[in-house]
Design a protein that fits this description.
It is built from 5 helices and 26 strands. It has 371 residues and is mainly β. A hairpin with a 4-residue loop joins strand 8 and strand 9. The termini are far apart.
Length: 371
């Protein structure tokens, strides 16, 4: 199992067998929407993730709160505090746990924060992470003896809207039965065709050692293929890039943060650059790029190359996985999707030679391309 529940202001889904599981939960497993009548066993490990924007007023802001008081007490509160910080408070009976983490608040209201509270009772540790998906920033704090949540309380938090408060700035929140990784994020769906020496192959079928074509004209071996299943909401919501725009031979579905290398006369005229990088989310205009609705979760994958290069996907150059110099930061590495890889085997990626367009610049270019 992994993601078992997700909720936003439009609705909610919960399945103890896992979101998207073909088999529905048995009646005895799903239970009713309220909290149970006796204290349940805590989940051995898990995560609560929330995506939100913050109030522009800089005042304390309760982003998410759940409380159950009878016949036992359990509560979960996630609050934004002045000065750029997040506070988490979890109670189980007489046990109270709290932790706080600061972040760079300079981005203002327009930036999305992804906040993840995780616990692992076997290892007796946990962590609180704050990510800025649009800026590839991660803030992290680890701690000992965190308070867990139970399946019953997560069910009540997801489905029992009367038992929770969710601020209007919250985009969604979700619950997992795993300690979810943070930071590095893959961004291609399984069926995105990637150019290899054996022709175009679905990205999800690639394995280490496969040779892929890059826009420099070379053939480069794949070092690793990383995958992650996430809620199909917020900064994870898939984007369909439509052919024949951007040189695509067919439609492809990618994550909002997947960056595309775009060149041409419009780019040189507008930005004075031969090529630029544009995240897919900034191309959404209802014509050349649209958001995808449907399944509660989506699985993304991406190839890791020795150098930070662009691969060819359905005829369009897309950025491969960028990991920077994460191997120099063991604490950050062990919380990422690359935690199982040997540090000495990881490459170091310098920043791309192509500038990344700001949202308003990307919108200008997308509108001109769609005209």
């Amino acid at each position: 199992m992994s993601w078992i529940g997700v909720a936003d202001h439009e609705g909610q889904r919960f399945n103890p067998l896992g979101l998207g599981h073909k088999q529905s939960a048995k009646p005895g497993m799903a239970g009713r929407k309220g909290a149970p009548d006796k204290a349940p066993l805590p989940l051995p490990k898990g995560s609560i993730a929330i995506e939100t924007r913050l109030s522009p007023h800089g005042q304390p802001q309760v982003l998410l709160r759940y409380e159950h008081v009878h016949p036992w007490r359990c509560s979960f509160t996630l609050q934004a505090i002045p000065g750029g910080g997040i506070l988490v408070i979890v109670t189980n009976g007489d046990e109270v746990f709290h932790c706080a983490l600061g972040h760079d608040s300079a981005g203002g209201r327009t930036d999305v924060l992804r906040i993840t509270y995780s616990w692992d009772m076997e290892r007796k540790n946990g962590r609180l992470a704050i990510e800025r998906p649009e800026m590839d920033k991660v803030f992290l704090v680890s701690f000992e003896n965190p308070q867990p949540l139970s399946m019953s309380d997560i069910r009540a938090m997801i489905l029992g809207s009367r038992m929770r408060e969710m601020d209007r700035d919250v985009i969604f929140f979700a619950a997992s039965t795993e300690v979810e990784p943070v930071g590095i994020m893959p961004s291609l769906t399984h069926n995105v065709p990637v150019a290899t020496t054996k022709g175009y192959r679905p990205a999800g079928t690639l394995v280490p050692g496969d040779l892929v074509h890059t826009i420099s004209g070379g053939l480069v071996p794949v070092l690793e293929v990383v995958r992650r299943n996430v809620p199909a909401k917020g900064s994870f919501q898939p984007v369909r890039l439509r052919a024949p725009y951007f040189g695509l031979a067919r439609d492809i579905i990618v994550a909002p943060q997947q960056r595309m290398v775009i060149g041409g006369s419009e780019v040189e005229y507008l930005f004075g650059q031969e090529s630029v990088l544009i995240p897919a989310q900034h191309l959404i205009n209802g014509v050349s790029a649209i958001t995808c609705e449907g399944a509660p979760t989506v699985t993304y994958c991406q190839v890791l190359l020795a150098n930070h290069e662009a691969i060819l996907a359905a005829g369009c150059p897309l950025e491969s996985l960028y990991i920077g110099r994460i191997r120099r930061w063991p604490d950050r590495l062990k919380t990422s999707l690359l935690a199982g890889m040997e540090r000495s085997m990881l490459p170091e990626h310098v920043k791309s030679a192509y500038p990344i367009l700001k949202p308003f610049e990307a919108i200008t270019l997308a509108n001109q391309r769609a005209a």
